[in-house]
Amino acid sequence: MTEPQTAPRRRRARLRRRPLPRAANLREKAARVLRRIRILYRRRIAPVLGVVSPVGWAVAGGALVCAIGGVTLNVAELTMIAVVLAVPLLVAAVFVLGRASYRVTMDLSSRRVVVGERAIGRVEVANASSRMMLPSRIELAVGTATAQFLVPRLGPDHSHEELFAIPTRRRTVLKVGPVRSVRDDPLGLMRRQVTWARSQEVFVHPRTVRLEGFDTGYLRDLEGTPSSALSSSDIAFHALRAYQSGDDLRHVHWKTTARTGSLMVRQFEETRRSHIVVALANDATHYAHEEEFELAVSVAASLSSQTLREEKDLTPLSIGNHLHVDTYRRLMDDYTVVEVVRGRATLRDLGRSAADTAPSASAVIFVVGSGATPAELMAAGTQIPPGVGTVAIRCADQESVRRSAIGTLDLVTVGQLDQLSRALRTVSR
Fold first, then answer.
1. pTM of the entire structure?
2. Is residue 163 located within the same domain as residue 122?
3. 302: helix, coil or strand?
4. Is residue 356 part of a domain?
5. Is residue 215 part of a domain?
6. What residue numbers bound the domain in which 232 lies?
7. Nearest CA to 280 among 312, 323, 245, 243?
8. Mean pLDDT for each consecutive 10-residue tract of the chain (429 residues)?
9. Are 378 and 389 in contact (CB under 8 A)?
10. Are residues 318 and 424 in the same domain?
């Protein structure tokens, strides 16, 4: 019984060991050779050829053409031109020869700055070899620009330090680095660069201001937190006071009344709840220019940061962006990357999103540009449930502060970020 079962298995094994056809064998060998050639070119040849600049290739091509023409046509002048062109190439090769053994460190004092501040950093270049290192040039990429500084001759275990400051004119995520050492010849025929330190990101946050005296967005709620406002009816007991006409007799404290001989009533701290929605309308059609949109982002960021500072509940919104509120730093990082969009949603859609995202909100603040029409603002306000305070802050560059009303929506116009605190006090009155 065993032989009939094992015989087919042996035959199948022999079939598997049958050699591939000759054509397939050749194709496999050719593919293997090409793969090795590609690896060799990428690792060995490409770095050498990459040292030659476009100008260097032009000079090399001219030297080659003149050399071939001189030998073929037996023209001594062409041969002499080829020699003259080859000499600078040989000299340039001397400039880029040799290996650099640097140890490069790039440190940033802070990876988060505010618009207008300077990002301060340091680059330290140390000689990690046991031999003298010739002078070289260090390049530091900063966004789309490149900063350069010279490194002098360094002995073993010696180092050179350079400090740099990056001015910030607008909010952005700035890429600083990488740090490269560069060797090239005076004619620019050859250039050799080595990357030593990776790039780092610097978040340039929008400018914000503190908002004093802005008390909008509170609702009385027995489950809220006690406030400094006193009330004759609540659950957070504060003190006893003399009875006044109109006080509820249910709050009379009878033991104290019997002891003092005059009616005494309980006084309470008013418990409140506050949940602010800051809705930034970042539709490009609402803004006259880039500075106006930057003002709107700064206004929204100021409102959000003040809400977090006062430990109120916050829901920040914008079109096409998800903003986090777990930490102040992360919230400002999200405001840093907010950009204008075109045609994705209307103000009405933004109002509906605010109502759906935060149904328990006590106040909704829309931040819009000068291009937002009264009809659009009214359509956005109608999406907010009744009883919720609704404010629209219209950002119009260089305009004075003024307040108006569109239905149940309070409209405040600001022309500068420093006007925001004064403008909001007119709403909270």
1. 0.70
2. yes
3. helix
4. yes
5. no
6. 227-272
7. 323
8. 51 52 75 84 73 88 91 88 91 79 88 92 89 85 87 88 90 91 84 85 94 55 41 51 78 80 73 79 91 95 90 88 89 94 87 89 91 92 88 90 88 92 77
9. no
10. yes
